[in-house]
Amino acid sequence: MPAFRWLYSALRGQILAGRLRPGARLPATRELAKQYGLSRGTIVNAFELLKSEGYTEGTIGSGTYVSKILPEEWMNVRVCGGSTHKKHRQTNRHLSAYGRQVSLFPGYDNRPTRAFRANVPALDVFPIELWTQITARVLRRISTNHLLGCEPMGYEPLRQAVADYLSSSRGVNCEPAQVAIVSGVQEGLDLAARLFVNSGDRVCMEQPGFGGAAQVFEAIGARVSTIALDDQGIKLQERCLRGARLVYVTPGHQFPLGITMSLARRLELLKWANRSGSLIFEDDYDGEFRYSGRPISALQGLDHSGCVLYAGSFSKILFPSLRLAYLVVPADLVDHIAAAKSLTTRHAPVLDQAVLCEFITEGHFGRHVRRMRELYATRLSALLESARQELAGLLQVSSIEAGLQTVGWLQQGIREESAARAARECNVDVTPLSRYCRRPLARQGLQLGFAGVDPREIQRGVRDLASALRSTIIHR
């Protein structure tokens, strides 16, 4: 620290502590310089800084004095009698309809992953060193184009890479111009809601379903209707769909139950959307991770009338803080999406987009997905085997075909909220299915994540979850 800053900090501290009282005269600059062995210029600089910030006052020849009113006092709101409020007063704010409806959507807790935290990839095996090398290479050859930014739909080379990947791996039919790079599927939902749904319009979604989607729709004043599920996906009942402007679905791996929508249901849904002029929002949040059966192409790949908005996330595949995802838009809606983005986020950080583009085009992304698919299949097998041994008669864990998490159906008499509370006391994370529901389910169950949990922690979690469930039976 420079000497004048040290002296300034010391004197300011004495003033704020009350040892140098308001109105007290400070020693002359020559006297202080002699006492501390400093140049007079250093002392003068410290005094000038104190004076410029309002801690001291005075003129040449009259000396320097501690200010009678310190800057900290001016920062407080003064009221009659000279007292100050320690807390902000309540104010009746005028909020828009959106402001009154919007609510906080929780993000990721920054804490170690334990059994059975859901919606988290295997961060313990992410190739951080490789990502760092690519980042350094991109930064070394950075140009003014990167510094200026990009168009609202996103960094063009990344949009090309995403379009190529989706075409070859997910069966999506699109051109790079139809790809919008967004900060997450949540931003894609917000764009779709604000552009295509008015207050009072009906939006349909699965029951149970993703709460983050429901919050977006309700924030703009939409009426959210739910559609029941069976083993083929949503039941397409005409009375539920009547008048709907948009339908939100997760056909590849239904959230949170893990059901894969059958081909017949997909075609039926597309036929309805084409006939009614409505839109379908397809959230393919973890469609890359399929462990058994034939690969299932995206619903969008079957769409020939341009009624599907298709979204996917790199945060679920790579790491959550990346905050990059994509939204594939029907060609006639591209300009509307671009206009909305230009007024809000403008575009995602270009450097992050450039690094991800290199990661994809050099083949690392495809290798990472294949590696994670094998790893997650192993972890799912570990969960199912441990559950078979430890949870029989307590929890029936579903053997799913895809995804990062599964569900366990509680045996008769075990209440899911009590089970979740008891599990939490045993350092086990499970989510009651009722938290994804707008009306009660016929069966009670728990969501269990396995992708981000190593096999040893899975085994520990199953044992402790079994103990927790038994305790709820004993104390019921």
* Class per helix and strand makeup: alpha/beta
Termini separation (Å)? 64 Å
Shape: globular
Helix content: 40-55%
Map the helices and strands:
Blueprint: H1 3-17, H2 29-36, H3 40-52, E1 56-59, E2 63-66, H4 71-75, H5 97-101, H6 128-140, H7 144-148, H8 156-169, E3 179-182, H9 185-196, E4 202-207, H10 211-219, E5 223-230, E6 233-234, H11 238-241, E7 244-249, H12 263-276, E8 279-283, E9 308-313, E10 325-328, H13 334-343, H14 350-361, H15 364-390, E11 395-397, E12 405-410, H16 416-425, E13 431-432, E14 445-449, H17 455-474
Parallel strand pairs: 4-5, 4-7, 7-8, 8-9
Antiparallel strand pairs: 1-2, 3-10, 5-6, 9-10, 11-12, 12-14, 13-14
Q: In short, what is this structure?
A:
The chain is α/β, with parallel strands linked by helices and 476 residues long. The chain has helices at residues 3-17, 29-36, 40-52, 71-75, 97-101, 128-140, 144-148, 156-169, 185-196, 211-219, 238-241, 263-276, 334-343, 350-361, 364-390, 416-425, 455-474; strands at residues 56-59, 63-66, 179-182, 202-207, 223-230, 233-234, 244-249, 279-283, 308-313, 325-328, 395-397, 405-410, 431-432, 445-449. The protein is built from 17 helices and 14 strands.
